[in-house]
Amino acid sequence: MGADIAGAQNLDDAFLKEHLEKKIYSLDSEADAVVLYEKTMIRTESNIRLGFEQITHVYKCIKILKTAAIDMRVADISTGYVYGRSSYVNNIIGTTYNMDDGKIEKTPLLSSAAFKKNSGEFYEMVFTMPEVKVGSIVEYSYDINAPLSYYPMPWVIQGPFPKLQSEYEIESPSKFNYIDVSQLSVGDEPFRDYNTKKETQADNVTSYHVLTEMNDKRFSVLWGKRNIPSVNEEPFICNIINHRDRLDLQISAVYNGNFLYNQEILTTWKKLNDLLWSAPKFGEQLKTSNNFLNRLVDSLSLSDTSAMGKARSIYNYVRKNIDYDHYQGLYATEDIYKVLNNKRGSVADINLLLTAMFSKAGINASPVVLSTLGNLRINPSYPLLNRFNYVVSMVTIDSVRYFFDASDKFNPFGILPTYCYNGYARIIDSHGDELFLSPDDLKERNVYVVNIDGIGDSLCKINIAEKHGMFSSMSLRKKWDGDSTALHKYIKGEAESYKGDVTISDMKTINLENADTNLIIKYTLNITSKQAGIIYLNADFRKFYSENPFKSTHRKLPVEFPNKFEDIYVMTLKLPENMEAEDLPKPIIVKYDEGNIMFKHLVNYDSSNRVITVNSNFTVAKTNFDVKEYSTIREFFGTMVENENDMLVLKKVKDK
Fold first, then answer.
1. Most exposed of 71, 151, 376, 486 (fewest Cβ within 10 Å)?
2. pLDDT score of 181
3. What is residue 528's DSSP assignment?
4. Are the beta carbons of 535 and 650 closer than 8 angstroms?
5. Are 65 and 33 within 8 A, CB to CB?
6. Within 10 A of 586 (CB to CB), how many other CB atoms are there?
7. Per-residue DSSP letters for 233-258?
8. What per-residue confidence (pLDDT) applies to 455?
9. Is pLDDT at 182 greater than 90 in this prediction?
10. pLDDT of 495 higher than 90
11. What's the CA gap between 150 and 145, in Å, rounded?
12. Kind of pairing between the strands at 564-574 and 443-455
């Protein structure tokens, strides 16, 4: 890269000409854009009003290679969320560089192009770089000034575009001790230690680390990496950010020059547990007597005094009567007394209230803190508090653990939404304990039953019954809530794949209002079409996959399913007297990884009763498969799709 350009806004013409003319980079010949250089520098300074101020300087220089990068809004910048009056964004500088007839055109970012956007209780500063097109280089930087945070902006090493060089530096008074927690790819080159930045340039190493002790009781630490590949979304990835290299910092201790006044912040899981258990907006909500709950809990426990019966009654009450205000977070926004009275609260409010009511009923209950899908997975090696973003409730009945989230009226009893299963979690109580919420804990079972009781020259009558698994049922109930036309729209969508004129009749649902059991959908399709002497009929009216979801021949990431599942399809066709089975698909059973992925497709013809039956089964018995297994999984899905497209060949005969 050459000279350190972070924040200097002084790219020389030779550098600009080289990269403006460049159309492809060996690091990734298919890239839509390449980050030429980026740096985040976090500096902590004394501040009379705030005590300490944290200035985060962000610099980026990006080469646009394809229109797709512009479509991905690479030139639209947001600083993220900035807190109120004590925080602000300043020193926004930017330039777009283009080559025009051999000359370098420089278009500066106007100060009027940046504006503050109110996002509820937060703000963000947004701006769009000018004159951006394929071939442009965009360069920009800005500062975020804010009170001292124990959790500085992380170093997100990998992203959607490859990077030639990325650096991250922190400069701080020596009184603050930082712990760094890295998420790096398996086999990634470790950071090599150097005394100066110049030495790293001479060696041109891939990963480097420079620690500098300053004379004025300050220090700086620089991390850097070169030639960083991109990591992008692929089919069947539950959470892309869990697969991108990054480094997080947290202040773990403050030293005040006197041993008696040294303060450890969060260095152990016990300290995190004690912090939350003693917090007024968390554990203190549960440790008080909460006598205002007595009458309500007693009334809910009258019909069934067993622990399971009381748990069901309490959960049903909270789920039905306390509205979710669509705010997630680790701490309660209100005392549970107010939440109960207002009949409204955040996820933490609702589930802490639920936990208090369970406990009041004599049920062993504790809150659980976790990180949801879409949020970064918790690292079990160190307690980074800012990675937790969700609170649920756990009860233990007859040595069995049940988990609850009453913030959504469609969440079933004892089952969390799939987005809660993102790995490591913590039980918060007087002792604290670890917990692992894995997608392997979940199993979905969907059953589709098709009966064809009338097939003739121009009419095919198909009776369909769908029994949805709990997560599919939850999703449909939520999607259909308040929409009286939803069922018809759903069935119409299901019928679009059938050839001929289709009419729908006998539509009905079972258990639509009961979130604690499977949703059943029944309907009849009447298909009118002209048939020749030979009728080709697809054996699978409901396919597990209509096409192979794994289109690419290559893959970088493991294959992740959101849960284990079993899909079952059963079709029964009664042939009329004037029709015979001419040809049937051959039965097939395909297994992979000792049956952890399995597909069965069995077709049988009972000639004496003139009945054709199709029994298909698709099972995934574990949720994570290594990227090395990708080619076999892709081949498996291709085989399954091919067999699901096989046709029944029926032949008309003279009327008997």
1. 71
2. 87
3. E
4. yes
5. yes
6. 10
7. --SS-S-GGGGS-EEEEEEEEE--SS
8. 76
9. no
10. no
11. 14
12. parallel
The residues, ordered by sequence, that sit 6+ positions from 1 with a Cβ below 8 Å of its Cβ are: 36, 37, 164, 165, 226
Angle at 254 between CA 180 and CA 331, to 5 degrees: 75
Strand order in the sheet with 218-228: 103-108, 88-100, 137-147, 51-64, 33-47, 163-173, 218-228, 207-213, 192-194
Secondary element (H or E) of residue 472: helix 470-480
**Which residue would you say has higher pLDDT here, 147 or 425?**
425
Residue 483 has pLDDT above 50, yes or no: yes
Q: What pLDDT shows up at residue 116?
A: 82
Band (pLDDT 50/70/90 cuts) for residue 6 is: very low
Contact yes or no for 615/570 (Cβ under 8 A):
yes
> In the prediction, which pLDDT does 1 show?
38
Please give the backbone phi and psi of residue 523, each rounded to the nearest 5 degrees, phi first. -165, 165
Q: How far apart are CA 590 and CA 607, in angstroms?
A: 27
| CA contacts within 13 A on the Cβ side of 313 | 18
Helix (H) or strand (E) holding 15: helix 13-21
pLDDT at 42: 96
CA dihedral 235, 238, 241, 243 (to 10 degrees): -70
Residue 111's closest CA among 82, 84, 140?
140
pLDDT of residue 8: 39
Q: Under a CB-based contact definition with an 8 Å cutoff, are residues 17 and 59 in contact?
A: no
Q: Which residue has the higher pLDDT, 466 or 578?
A: 466
